[in-house]
């Protein structure tokens, strides 16, 4: 399997290494391509306090820095410019006009926040204490209701569109108690897969939870991956890297689970056929998983 990663966080948001260090490690590890996906700013639109998003006034600086890296690494490593954009219904999302108008190679759409009927907004992948509080105050302790709200938000984000890759589709498993999903959840998961397949949106097989939190499987696991396969959803493997050393982490597990789910190809970004490496040349091509 060729290695690449389109889900990468640097010191511009909550990552720990700079752009150049990521490029150097990706080059050393023979990556076919590397894409940067800073957490897009949300404060102005949501009012949420956050220390893990790009600051509003540094967006241009970030974009310039990735483009400069693309020029420095031309001929050695294909470097792409993206953002990971939060979806919070009615507040922020990848389909927002200001996001669509940015000159990016690609966008990842992700649901991290839930805004419950009661209580405060919270992140489903934050600390266990934050999740427990969101569950208790927002959903009266009903994990099914929380999970249904999460999957409902994922479906709403896909319907709204404006992005190329769906981030960590089953992120809630980071904190949720492991158990078999009920009929209602299975319906929502299938609906998300169906919407992705129709929209031609790529799902990532994201090893970030394995790398950073010791979760035993990628986002998503085997059963959801099988659902995605049945709905014709293409996939790309990413590390959700917050350090350069994360690049390629647990990709063998991702490969094994892809094969088990029936995927024999995954998408890798390609810049071939383009000498200038302009944003227009970003495309994802199928490569064998084996
Ligand atoms: Zn994310
Ligand atoms: Zn991320």
Describe this structure as you would to a colleague.
With 290 residues, the chain is α/β, with parallel strands linked by helices. The protein has a single domain, classed as Metal-dependent hydrolases (TIM Barrel), CATH 3.20.20.140. It contains ten helices and eleven strands. The protein has helices at 19-28, 43-46, 59-72, 97-100, 128-139, 143-160, 183-199, 208-213, 222-230, 251-260, and strands spanning 4-5, 33-39, 78-86, 106-110, 113-114, 122-123, 165-166, 202-206, 235-238, 265-270, 283-288. The protein has a seven-stranded parallel beta sheet with strand order 1-2-3-4-7-8-9. Strands 5-6 form a two-stranded antiparallel sheet. α7 (183-199) links the parallel β7 and β8 (202-206). α6 runs parallel beside α7. The longest helix has 18 residues, at 143-160. It is globular and about 55 Å long. 45% of the residues are buried. The model has no long low-confidence stretch (mean pLDDT 95). The chain binds zinc ion (2 copies). One zinc ion is lined by residues 7, 9, 84, 240. The site of one zinc ion has 5 residues, from loops.
């Amino acid at each position: 399997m060729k290695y690449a990663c389109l889900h990468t966080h640097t010191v511009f948001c909550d990552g720990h290494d700079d752009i150049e260090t990521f490029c150097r490690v990706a080059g050393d590890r023979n990556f076919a391509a590397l894409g940067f996906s800073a957490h897009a700013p949300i404060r102005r639109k949501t009012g949420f306090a956050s220390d893990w998003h790009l600051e509003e006034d540094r967006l241009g600086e970030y974009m310039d820095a990735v483009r400069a890296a693309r020029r420095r690494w031309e001929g050695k490593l294909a470097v792409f410019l993206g953002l990971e954009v939060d979806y919070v219904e009615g507040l922020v999302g990848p389909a927002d006009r200001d996001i669509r108008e940015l000159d990016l190679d690609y966008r990842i759409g992700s649901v991290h926040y839930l805004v419950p009927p009661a209580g405060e907004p919270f992140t489903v992948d934050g600390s266990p204490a934050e999740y427990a509080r969101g569950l208790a105050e927002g959903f009266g302790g009903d994990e099914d209701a929380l999970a249904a709200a999460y999957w409902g938000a994922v479906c709403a984000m896909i319907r709204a569109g404006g992005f190329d890759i769906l981030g960590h589709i089953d992120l809630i498993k980071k904190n949720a108690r492991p158990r078999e999903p009920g009929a209602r959840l299975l319906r929502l998961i299938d609906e998300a897969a169906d919407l992705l397949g129709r929209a031609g949106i790529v799902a990532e097989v994201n090893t970030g939870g394995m790398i950073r939190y010791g979760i035993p499987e990628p986002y998503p696991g085997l059963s959801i991956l099988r659902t995605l396969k049945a709905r014709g959803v293409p996939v790309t493997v990413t590390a959700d890297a917050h350090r350069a050393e994360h690049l390629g982490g647990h990709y063998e597990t991702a490969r094994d689970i892809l094969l088990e789910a029936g995927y024999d190809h995954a998408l890798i970004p390609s810049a071939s056929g383009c000498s200038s490496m302009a944003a227009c040349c970003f495309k994802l091509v199928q490569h064998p998983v084996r």
